[in-house]
Design brief:
The chain has about 350 residues and is α/β, with parallel strands linked by helices. Helices cover about 40% and strands about 15% of the residues. Helix 1 runs parallel beside helix 2 and helix 7 (about 205-210) runs parallel beside helix 9 (about 275-285). It is globular.
């Protein structure tokens, strides 16, 4: 009998790729996402990618802050576990409007957990972020590093991690896996689903993508005087399909072990510099990316990448794709869908609120 999984934010970037892998893994999946997300377009493509297993997908437009709607969903559907990827995720926006982030991310999560408790569903995979490490003093980052969230977005993730730990401490029936993402990039190899652009990008690769598409004249590189091999900042990038498979590995761990509340890094375990990433993207798209070298941004760390030893050892999971495949699949998606799931008129007005 197939297990039934609820995926919050399932029309988002990470969520949609995770749903494809869940369906192919023969799970039944129910997706909820906010009303102004491109839910139907995304999930039609997801169902098609899943082939015969696409019939096991259902979806509802719903805000996690609407607790009565959540109660109604749980009352009519029995879930074996929840994968919680929903949430606002732009660091700059969180600094400008912290109340929006606390209201959406924290209150929405508390509503979800309360409804899960009332319906006896106590298995959770929670999407956290490497931003909870702040500016680590050494690398690679291990799961037991000190936590130091440096902005409202990161603090919402850290607060929700603490809520998860407190819930388990109060009730050992819970099984919770917290996944700390590093930097997801790439897209499904088919080019059917990927990251939906919305106004000014929040991450490096969508900026590079927009330059390659001719929507921006150049890429601004912040910081060219770091103590790194090419003097630019170094980060850990992970293919979104690898990340999606990490969720399946976490889910299997919940079902197959007596795990309590555990944290795992999901990254490639390797550092890639800005210039290395640009070079790989140029190779993928066959175009030169013009660069504007600028000073460091306040608060930017020099080098951040993950230790993935714990995930490899306990989840039997390891990233399979390198930066070349990430850029190849990102460009395949971008060239087929230059304005994401919407038209040029709508692409700048859509509000991304799923991880």
């Amino acid at each position: 009998m197939s297990r039934s999984i609820l995926v919050t934010g399932g029309a988002g970037y990470v969520g949609s790729h995770t749903v494809v892998q869940l369906l192919l893994g023969r799970f039944k999946v129910v997706v909820i996402d906010i009303p102004n997300s491109p839910l139907e377009i995304v999930l039609k493509r997801v169902a098609k990618l899943a082939g015969e297993f696409g019939k096991n997908l259902a979806f509802y437009q719903m805000d996690l802050r609407d607790k009565p709607a959540l109660e109604k969903l749980f009352a009519c559907t029995s879930f074996d576990a929840v994968i919680h990827t929903a949430g606002l995720k732009a660091v700059r926006e969180s600094v400008k409007n912290p109340l929006l982030y606390y209201n959406n991310n924290v209150i929405g999560t508390i509503n979800l957990l309360e409804v899960m408790v009332s319906h006896g569903c106590k298995k959770l995979v929670f999407s956290s972020s490497a931003t909870v490490y702040g500016w680590p003093k050494e690398v690679p980052c291990t799961e037991d590093f000190p936590l130091c969230a440096a902005n409202p977005y990161a603090r919402t993730k850290l607060f929700m991690e603490e809520v998860c730990r407190d819930i388990y401490s109060s009730d050992s029936e819970w099984k919770i896996i917290i996944l700390r993402y590093f930097n997801p990039v790439g897209a499904h190899p088919s080019g059917s689903i990927g990251e939906n652009p919305s106004g000014t990008p929040n991450n490096l690769v969508p900026f590079i993508q927009q330059v390659a598409l001719g929507r921006r004249p150049e890429l601004t590189v912040f910081g060219s005087d770091y103590s790194t091999k090419d003097r630019t900042g170094v980060r850990d990038y992970i293919h979104v399909v690898d990340l999606a498979n990490g969720h399946l590995a976490a889910l299997r761990k919940l079902f197959d072990s007596n795990i309590g509340c555990e944290v795992y890094n999901l990254g490639s375990g390797k550092g890639t510099s800005v210039l290395e990433l640009v070079s790989a993207f140029e190779k993928a798209c066959g175009k030169k990316i013009p660069l504007l070298m600028a000073g460091r941004r306040p608060g930017d760390a020099e080098i951040v990448y993950a230790s993935t030893d714990k995930a490899e050892r306990e989840l039997n999971w390891k990233a399979e794709y390198g930066i070349e495949e990430m850029c190849r699949d990102q460009w395949n998606w971008a060239s087929k869908n230059p304005f994401g799931y919407g038209s040029p008129d709508h692409s700048t007005s859509q509000k991304t609120s799923s991880s």
